[in-house]
Specification:
This protein is α+β, with helices and mostly antiparallel strands. The chain is built from 3 helices and 9 strands; from the N terminus they run αβββββββααββ.
């Protein structure tokens, strides 16, 4: 019986050792698989130092000098005069503002500034907007002139339909008509019977 217990104990110890050894081998393989191969360390890259830009301080107009930041219109005896953004005005003792051509304006604080940076910005934006509007108007004029010229050429050309009227029809009872005329939109030609 003692041999049986010794043999049984030996079998358990041997089986445990095999299992533990197998566990250790698989965990060693796992560790080896998870560990990346050593790589060459890249040389440190020197990053440039970022220096914050110092904001430019605002420039202000002299005491009593202001600039319009909105368009202002004034009714005069001659009509209506408009002053674009960026127009220089002087503040009078009575609180009203005077332009360089002598027009007196009543302004609210949201219509003027003494900050030169803001004044230059709104004046530039207004000038760019006016230039874009002028260019668009010029393009419309060129397009209208081209359409008028095309309509004039079409109106002066003999109509293919008029020339192809068979000789057996009474052409005196027909007239050539235009539904749009030469209004710049183009002319259409067709035959209409009188009385239709």
């Amino acid at each position: 019986m003692k041999n049986r217990i010794g043999l049984r104990t030996f079998s358990i110890v041997a089986a445990s050792t095999v299992l533990l050894t197998a566990c250790n081998k698989s965990s060693q393989n796992t560790i080896v698989a998870e560990t990346p191969a050593p790589q060459a360390t890249p040389a440190p890259v020197e990053t440039p130092k970022v220096v914050a830009a110092t904001p430019v301080p605002d420039e202000f107009a002299p005491e009593g000098t202001f600039y319009l930041i909105t368009k202002v219109s004034v009714e005069t005896s001659d009509g209506i005069t408009g002053f674009p953004p960026g127009t220089k005005v002087q503040k009078n003792a009575d609180g009203k503002f005077e332009t360089s051509n002598g027009q007196v304006l009543s302004l609210t604080p949201n219509q003027y500034t003494n900050n030169m940076r803001i004044a230059r910005g709104v004046a530039g934006a207004d000038a760019a907007q006016r230039a874009a509007l002028a260019q668009a108007a010029q393009q419309r004029e060129v397009s209208a002139a081209a359409a008028d010229a095309a309509a004039a050429r079409a109106a002066s050309a003999p109509s293919a339909q008029t020339a192809s009227v068979p000789s057996h029809q009474n052409t005196s009872a027909m007239s050539s008509g235009s539904s749009l005329g030469s209004s710049g939109l183009g002319a259409t030609h067709g035959l209409k019977r009188r009385g239709d």
